[in-house]
Design goal:
The structure is a homodimer. With about 400 residues, chain A is α/β, with parallel strands linked by helices. Chain A has 9 helices and 26 strands. The interface between A and B is large, with 105 and 105 residues.
Chain lengths: ~400, ~400
Amino acid sequence: MRAVDDAVRLLVQTGKARVRATPCEMVSVHQALGLVLAEDVSSPVDVPPRDNSAMDGYAYRHADAERAGFTVPVSARIAAGQAPGALASGSAARIFTGAEIPAGADTVAMQEDCRLEDGHVVIAAAVTPGANIRPQGQDVRRGDVILHAGRRLRPQELGLLASVGRAEVSVHRPLRVAVFSTGDELVEPGRPLAPGQIYNSNRATLAGLLAAWGMVMIDCGICPDRPERVVALLERAARDADVVITSGGVSVGEEDHVKGAVERLGSLDLWKIAIKPGKPLAFGEVLGTPFMGLPGNPASVFVTALMLLRPFLFSLAGADDVSPMALAARATFSRKAGKREEYLRVRRRGDAVEIFANQSSGMLSSACWGDGLVRQRAGQAIAEDDLVEFLPYSAFFTPL
Amino acid sequence: MRAVDDAVRLLVQTGKARVRATPCEMVSVHQALGLVLAEDVSSPVDVPPRDNSAMDGYAYRHADAERAGFTVPVSARIAAGQAPGALASGSAARIFTGAEIPAGADTVAMQEDCRLEDGHVVIAAAVTPGANIRPQGQDVRRGDVILHAGRRLRPQELGLLASVGRAEVSVHRPLRVAVFSTGDELVEPGRPLAPGQIYNSNRATLAGLLAAWGMVMIDCGICPDRPERVVALLERAARDADVVITSGGVSVGEEDHVKGAVERLGSLDLWKIAIKPGKPLAFGEVLGTPFMGLPGNPASVFVTALMLLRPFLFSLAGADDVSPMALAARATFSRKAGKREEYLRVRRRGDAVEIFANQSSGMLSSACWGDGLVRQRAGQAIAEDDLVEFLPYSAFFTPL
């Protein structure tokens, strides 16, 4: 059996090697949430571009004001957005938050520390020289690379790009992922269920994940059981999509038609991965397009999509960091050691995690009940109150 | 000053009181990621609908096979999706993963534990009665409420809805949020910067957050400094949107035109909140539509949007749980106690968090550098190696 970490390393390596194949495009910064930057962005400006006032108050040169006993005439008024002239020597300027500090001033007294008397401002002597000024270039310096290629864009990165004047950026085109479901027992939701049938839930889970990841799902529906139809569908998917994925069927053999079709059009490896739920994973290519076959059980699909599919798709999409976020939490349960790395569906309560009673791979409700996974390493026994690795779902769903 | 928790409680209360005003709509489950459920969903079916096989192998009645010395004739073949007839007494059926267990069988031996001899299957005696069967209703029982109204839909909930046959669900219509920027110093990215001006970054940060939250931004641009224009813009925004928000300007007074306009069209409270960065927050309504005025500094906008705007918008959108996820992490820094609750921009490294050197409210780069906030409570000093509350950004960005 292959260790999870080894499998991820191999998947990421394969993904990274293919990144250059995905084309780039310019998009509006406002539309770029979750996309992967395809350029190093350097700033053409200092942010802020000039020293500015952090407060509403009065701007003055501290040494001048000190000499005048901190009572000086008000010679100007500077609102935000104005380009101020130089400050008359020995005077102060009424100034507002965000407004540029005039040449000749080096300190701002906030208005609560001042009073106006007869055209003069009386400034509390305690205001320290240099106070309440945001220096030019404090946030970003002109020429700095503010974000590197490979960065997934979160809301704050959109703000940072805007702050240096960027309205558009070059990003990797969102990945197009073709999704097949396999299994003659599957029926799409909304239709009646005949004996022997179950509803197809994996397509909806995968649709949600791909949407959360900013990717485009090409829905190929439920794979029919006629080999020539499967080949035709796979051919079309491989031509239209950047990746082809299936859930179910690939490890089964006798009742499987996808495996043969993939092998006819490309190549396929069947991996046994030391992961629970999960284990069988098919990985290969169809007409040069990467192919991944996930297991069929709903909780297995969910866990392997987070732990194996996600790092593969993200590296293929050009992202640099694909590791999940793991934090320490206290277990309220005990559990024997196993041979495979197990991903337990848990619920967080403060700094502790409770476990869902039934960890069967068929139980999708186990994943809905809680808000994350606990990674139980192979050979690791968990005792009550042990600190364990908690992987919050939210960290899997966003541009981290 | 108002404590952060008190402010949030008041905002959530106001939001919840207005939920019924947002209309509901039916959407496809595949399109429902991040939306808030507006109905209790109960299941019309058992999942799985019948006992089925967890493995490829042979199905039989354990007592019969034992009596026959675990060598029994193979009388049937049951693939997934077929409705099997009853099993002939004293025989076994070849069966595949996901296929329905025939009446008369109570155990599945996986194929690795069997060998075929002359039309008979020889079953390892060690297979326990009842093995490898997924019982009917294991995941969901018919009539169970699987998800309650108020639940934000994550990928796994989409899967669960599909698993009980739901193709569409009733959700709250995504919130429409009108966003104004204020400040005469602001220029939109992509244009040249004149002296005294800075680029408007808050709009992009807010656009990203609203997109991450599944909400619709109505972009009202930069507020002009003519009172009658502001009133007209606010009127239109209040009519078209479910909420109106601004960044900057509202606390300033002399140079502010939004405050007067809001007061003319509705009402406005100025709150001083014990939060850093942040502090001033305007909260009120315009022609009956809720209004929130965020601070103007980019890091203040980011932090107050996560801590104050998010719980308000989420409760207004009908969500039941709006609290952020806080986990324990070890501080690699020390910090004096302060009077306000401070949200430090940090970066996680394993179980430890490092702090960004400059925590100024003007530094948006502080939020891009890391992956979460540390909440430093008012009066709490932090020493190196203390366990502190870490709030990962990702938990703020997703349907938690």
